[in-house]
Every structure is written in structure tokens, then in C-alpha cells.
Amino acid sequence: MTGAARAVGPRNYHQGRAHMQKLVKRLAVVSLVGMPIVGAIIVPAGQSGAATAIHAVLSTKAGPDATPNSTIKGKGKKSKYKPTALTFAEGTSTTCSNDTFTSLTITNSGKATQYVTVETSPRTYAAFGSLPGKSVGAVCLYGGSAGDTITFGLSNSSGSVNYKSHLTGTASD
To answer: Topology of 13-171 in CATH?
Structure first.
């Protein structure tokens, strides 16, 4: 191009927003494909909306039998957590790994892979990890305070559709 300056950004708000949505979807898919076993995220407090220091990590190691558990039943849009609320204890370390504390477990009782999401702001969910069929995911939570909550959801594989079922965990310590 000679003589004319080339525009470097989106021409209007909607073009930039659509581009960003596509980028976020691609990143969600890459994170699900690249890290199907472990995911970590900082989540906000329950009703206040203020950011808390709760951190969450999902792995496919089994937790102790005494760990609170929710089971995912069903497939696709009909997938549901049972029970839908748990009270959990937090780890005391500042990080979680496959060999540390388990706050709660999520069991996928079906044959299909389930895609777990976590609420990052009111009614906004981000990819958290995937659970292959007939597996148990151990969730390590740390850094929050008693009464802090975390909400998990379910979505399709690309993260573009969030299902109705939710699991709300409340910190006991």
C-alpha cells in the first residue's frame, strides 16, 4: 500500500467484540485440548461479587473417601450435578498439585466426557477442565476464607453453551 495509512485495529466496536469472542473460544478449546486434566483459576466471592483469593485446581486423581463429592449424571444439556451444594475444607498450602490436599471431588458417572466450568463473575463461566467418562476429578481449593463460595457449571466441549446445572461449594474454614 502506498500513500495511505493502514488501519491497525477494529473499524468499529462490534467487529472488535466479535474478534475477541472468537479468540476467547479458541483459547477455551486450546485449554481443554492442551490441559484436559489440570486447570487453575481465581474466582470471585459468592453474592458480594468482590474478588476473593480462592484458587481451584482440578486433577483426575481420586480424593479420600471422606471428601465431599458431587456426581454428574446425564449427558449433554441434561447433565446435572447431584448434590448441587457442598461444604468443603480448603488446603493450607499456597498451591495445589496432583499430590496435595483434596477439597472436594466431582464424579462423572456417564460414558461421555463432561466439561466443567467455573463462575468467574455473576453468570459468567470459564472453562475449568474436562472429566473423561467414568472418572473422578479431585478439586483442591485454597486461599479463601470461611463462607466464601465457588460455583461450578457444565458446558459443551467448546464452552459456547453453558448448561443449567450448577454445583456451589462453600468454604468451611
So the answer is: Immunoglobulin-like (2.60.40)
Q: pLDDT (tens digit, 9 = 90+) per residue, 28-61?
A: 443 333 333 444 444 444 444 444 567 777 776 6
Nearest CA to 107 out of 77, 73, 79 is that of 73
Are the C-beta atoms of residues 72 and 114 closer than 8 Å to each other? yes
- Burial class for 144, CB neighbours closer than 10 Å (0-12, 13-18, 19+): buried
- pTM summary value: 0.68
Q: Alpha helices, DSSP H only, in 35-160?
A: none
Q: Which residue has the cell 467487529?
A: 15
- Domain-wise residue ranges, the chain: 13-171
How far is 59 from 90, CA to CA, in rounded Å?
A: 16
Cα–Cα distance for residue pair 102/94, rounded to 1 Å = 13
